[in-house]
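Format notes (please read before filing issues)

Several people have asked whether sequences and structure tokens are stored in separate files. They are not. Every record keeps both together, in the order shown below: the sequence lines, then the token lines. Line labels are part of the format and must not be stripped during preprocessing.
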Amino acid sequence: MQAEEREELAAAIEATLRSTPGVRSVYRSGSVISQLLRLGAEAIGARKDDEPMVSVIVADGGVVVEATLGVESTARSGDILHAGHGAVDALLDARGLRHESITLTVAHVQPAERPRVPATS
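Then the structure lines:
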């Protein structure tokens, strides 16, 4: 799989995860050090800042997918991860791709939005 195809697949996986009920956001995967290296590379123009948030690596056993999610506090994280895993698996299957692993990590549980109460005078 060429780099362009991998980026397109990562973008499709990101869109699939974002459309999963309970997922509020998708963050870049990786350690703090890899994030700092990525930011440094972007700053000197060695890396594009619009690259997909989802990591996709092609391995001998299939595709390795890693994504970090922000989820709603009103739903069970385990249920959201299960649904997200199933959605990514279905996307890969529809494209005729096997997965070696799909790793989804919850990095942030976002509180439910509170309804705005009109100000009274």
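For reference, the curators noted about this record: DSSP finds three helices and four strands in the chain. The chain has one domain: 3-110.
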